[in-house]
Amino acid sequence: MKIISSLSEFLVWRASISSSLKVGFVPTMGALHNGHAALIKGSLNEADITVVSIFVNPKQFGENEDFSSYPRTVEKDCDLLQSAGVDILFLPQYEDIYSDDVKSFAFEHFFSRQLEGKSRPNFFPGVVNVVSRLFNIVKPSMSFFGKKDAQQLILINKMVNVGGFPIKIIPVETIREPSGLAMSSRNIYLSKSQTISASKIYKSLLLAESLLKHGEKDARVIKNEIKKNLLVDPAISVDYISIVCLNDLKEVSGEVCSPVLVSVAVYIGGVRLIDNIFYE
Q: Is 214 tagged catalytic?
C-alpha cells in the first residue's frame, strides 16, 4: 500500500494511472471499523485500483459538536487498510483539500435541510463541499457509501447527477454488531451499559418494519410506537423519528406508501447515534 500525504504527490500519482483502469474510492474520516471494511471490500471486488482517504473534515461539524474529540486512529487504520489490500491511502491536509486549485461543487436540495440537515445545519453543506473536492482530486470511476448514512447516500447520488460527475455511486449494506447496533466510529464513546441501550435503536426500527408488514399505514402510529419503544430506556433521548417517501423525499404525515426510509436519531449519554431501514 502506498501512502500519499500531499495533494501534489497525489496528482502526480493519479496522472500516471491509465484511463483504462477503474479506480474505486472510499472517502472516510478514519477510526475505521467493519462498516468501512465492507465499503473497501466492495471496491476491491469492483475496481482495478482502490483508493481510501482519511480526512476529518471540520466544515461538516457544528460549533458544539465533536470535531476536536472525534477519534483519530491513523496507525491502526493503516494496519487495517494494509491487510485489506488497499492500493492507495490518501492522507490530505486541510490546505490540500481546501486549496484554491481544487474545484468544489455547490449543491442545494430541500432534502438536505431535513433530518440530519435540520439537526446539524453545517453537516450537508460541509459533506457536499468536501466530497465534491475529493471527487475532483481522486477522479474515481466509482465510489462506495454505506446505507447507514442513508440521507448522505441519497444526496451524494443527487450531487453526482446534477454536477455531471462521471462516477458511479455504489451503496453498501449497513454492518451491525451482533446486538443489531449499526457500526459507527462514535460507538467508541459508549460505555457497556450505553451500548446495551443503543441496541434498542435497531430493535425500534425492526418494530416499525413489522408494523408496516402487518398492514399499519398510519405514519403517526408507527412513529409513536418507535418512540415508546425507545423511551422505555431512560438513557435514550430522541432527536428525531422520520418516515420519508423515497419517491419524493418528503416526510410522510398521513398514510405510508412504500418505498420509504424510516430513520431515527437519538442521544445516549451525550453521544448522538443514527440508524435507518429502507422499506420497500
A: no
Q: Mind listing the pLDDT tens digit for each residue in 16-57?
A: 999 999 999 999 999 999 999 999 999 999 999 999 999 999
Domains of the chain (ranges, CATH numbers) = 2-172 (3.40.50.620), 185-279 (3.30.1300.10)
Per the residue annotation, which of 33, 36, 109, 214 is the catalytic one? 36
Kindly report, residue by residue over 216-262, the tens digit of the pLDDT.
999 999 999 999 999 999 999 999 999 999 999 999 999 999 899 99
- Identify which of 174, 130, 170 has the alpha carbon closest to the alpha carbon of residue 149: 174
Closest by Cα among 94, 91, 80 to 4 = 91
pTM of this structure? 0.95
Residue identified by cell 471486488 is: 45
Strand segments (E) across 55-180: 88-90, 142-146, 168-172
